[in-house]
Specification:
The structure is a single chain. This protein is of the alpha/beta class. The protein is 36% helix and 15% strand. The strands form seven sheets. It has a five-stranded mixed β-sheet. The chain has a four-stranded mixed β-sheet with strand order 9-12-8-13. Strand 16 and strand 17 form a beta hairpin. Pfam families: SBP_bac_8.
Amino acid sequence: MTPNAASASSGPSRRSFLASTAVATAAVAGGMPLLAACGGSDSGSKDGTTAGKNAKKLLPAYVASNVVTPDIPSKHGSAMGFTAKLDLAGLKTSVPKKLGKGGSVKIMSPFWGTPPKGDNAYYQAMNDLIGVDIAWQNQDGNTYDEKLGAVLASSDLPDVVVIPSWNMGGKIPSAIISKFADLGPYLSGDAIKKYPNLAAIPSGAWQYSIFGGKLRGLPQPAPAVPGIVPFYRKDVFDKEGYELPKSPDEFLALAKEISRPKAKVWACDDMKWSAFEFFGVLSGSEKPLGWNLADGKMVYRVETEEYLEALEWVRKLYAAGVVHPDARAVQGTAGDRFTAGQVLIYNDNITSWWGKMAEQAGQKTDFRISGMDIFGADGGDPVLWAGSPAGIFAFVNKKASKAVVEDILAAANVTAAPYGTKEYMLTNYGVEGTHYTVKDGVPTKNDKGNQEVINAYVMLASPAPTIAHPDFPDIAKEQVEWQQRMGAFTKKSTFWGLQITEPARYTNLSNDFEQLEDDTVRGRKKISDVQQAVSDWKKQGGDKLRDWYQKLHDDNGSAQ
């Protein structure tokens, strides 16, 4: 299978959630929630976005794939799901003709783990299928920011650079605009039909790939529904007869019932990210999505009552002693405490639903993870906010020749093949017999597969959001059905789907809030400190930034 989703650390930061699950999501579920990226002019100096008619003329035509039919179709912004056993003999072909012309392409991409040798069997098989000699310049994903900045500042760029959205801070957006190619001539309108798997990528992901007024990114599409799930130990809940809470008050009451510190059992880990969902707070990981036009006024997330209420509720959890002490100290790993039974509830990216089951399969036969439905602050229906439609992008060097660009698109057309195809299996599992075996419809990677079939081709482009776990089809079903239930309550904020370039003077204006949130819920700061920070934020540029967003909306409208 794809790599296990690593767990978020005690004090969950947006980067730990994003980076820890990047590879698992890229290969299984299509993408991550992402931070704000930017548009502008080719020089990178123009602030703003590309919306409405200007955006539509850049978008590729959407042609849904009919190669494979999912067992659970997408609904309410969910991924599509596959729950049947895998039949290798029944795999479909989505790329009947090799489109690569035999050229050479160098791709720089983040990598988590130890990169395999460049001449390995997986890379050879993929390159043969594509018809292109791809050489991977794998860089440590944990320090990718540093390498990325240095490479983009130089004049010697590889043919393709993969940039996760959480690495798009500072001057990176300007570099994207000035150093990477306009793919519009190859993909806009009907031109994309040359690459059917790319044509099946949802239009929202392509809209989000417009940087500086040009279609520049090859996206990894993401579901619109929230990506953070409040997980619980279903095996323990069933055994103890605990009932799932349906409001913040019920959650606190249950947490007090569960917690037995002398037995080293606490109800939960840090629940800040779920609290934001329970209380309907605008997205905190993506700047444009943190703004919304409500009742005729442009509002930023930190100004809302919901934001303060969410923080106050998490403070109550800590104050009640129901949160694991290591979460307060920001040490250790939340996911490990969960699997060890030290906490029975924690929040993490949805990929951990399968990741934890796969991790524990050979260790605890009774282990069972499940996800709570998100409830509203008053115990009624929640108000959820959609995440961005793409999370990781591959960009083509502006100096690349037409032949090189076409070879890159040929490769992306293979890696974007849907689940249930020969191309998908090779991209995600490698070569049967060499990298994996299949028993009872379940493909299982061997040591060679776990060493070689990771972090590479899945980073170039991916299909429409998909969830499929042949080893745990019931988990895939639960994941998709959870997304569909939550999707029914998910709204799109004013700037959903738009790449936006904020004026440089405002870029770091909100940077201190995440640390302040963490200090506040742990009791090191007060809610009044947050209110003072909001007041300072307004004076230091927040009010002017609000006016800027208002004008941006007045001039461009929304993407919806």
